[in-house]
Amino acid sequence: GENVEQHPSTLSVQEGDSAVIKCTYSDSASNYFPWYKQELGKRPQLIIDIRSNVGEKKDQRIAVTLNKTAKHFSLHITETQPEDSAVYFCAASPYSSASKIIFGSGTRLSIRP
Amino acid sequence: GAVVSQHPSWVICKSGTSVKIECRSLDFQATTMFWYRQFPKQSLMLMATSNEGSKATYEQGVEKDKFLINHASLTLSTLTVTSAHPEDSSFYICSARAGVITDTQYFGPGTRLTVL
């Protein structure tokens, strides 16, 4: 089955700097890659997603890139703000598995003032 | 936007009892719902996929007789933790997929289960 690895597990950046989180996946049939932000005790919130027919997608300060050949994808947050502090999860959805989503292990992002 | 609710938001029960958690899609029909478990400071682990009108599909290592899932309608799926033990204490989150042509899943707010 699909296996998603995520790095780093923790990340601390200065406010205003950029943050990058990287993930790899194992199932070449996966075709949907969402990213979620989760605050303590709350539900995961979809912040951006990308499908396998696209190499890059941007939404304001957030961008995601996908390299299908290497089977890795990354989240880029620019001009970080204190409210960006949270746990971020990447995920992959194997096309053949009824769109179930397999999550990475998570990255705890802290923004230093 | 699509809204998914869960009830209860938290529950405390005694060891050996059963607990039922409800997951509802409030403004859309969900053909497929998913149940996850999340331990503190860990990721979401998929437990099972719930399809309306059919048996749930459990992930490897998840006991189907312990975690009973019922998806009786297009807006409601339930997870029953039977004979709960302290190690079942966790944050249980459901998600719902709106239709068969979309990949987007909407998550419920989660249910925190504490077994004494």
Structure description:
The complex is a heterodimer of chains A (113) and B (116). By secondary structure, chain A is mainly beta. Chain A is built from no helices and 11 strands. In chain A, the strands form 2 sheets. In chain A, strands 2, 4, 5, 9, 10 and 11 form a 6-stranded mixed sheet that branches. In chain A, strand 7 and strand 8 form a beta hairpin. Chain B has 116 residues and is an all-beta fold. Chain B contains no helices and 11 strands. In chain B, strands 2, 4, 5, 6, 9, 10 and 11 form a 7-stranded mixed sheet that branches. Chain B has a 4-stranded antiparallel sheet with strand order 1-3-8-7, with no helix packed on it. In chain B, strand 9 and strand 10 (105-107) form a beta hairpin. In chain B, 0% of the residues lie in helices and 52% in strands. Chain B is globular and about 40 Å long. Chain B has strands spanning 4-7, 10-13, 19-25, 32-38, 45-51, 57-58, 67-73, 76-81, 90-97, 105-107, 111-115. At the A-B interface, strand 5 and strand 10 of A face strand 5 and strand 9 of B.
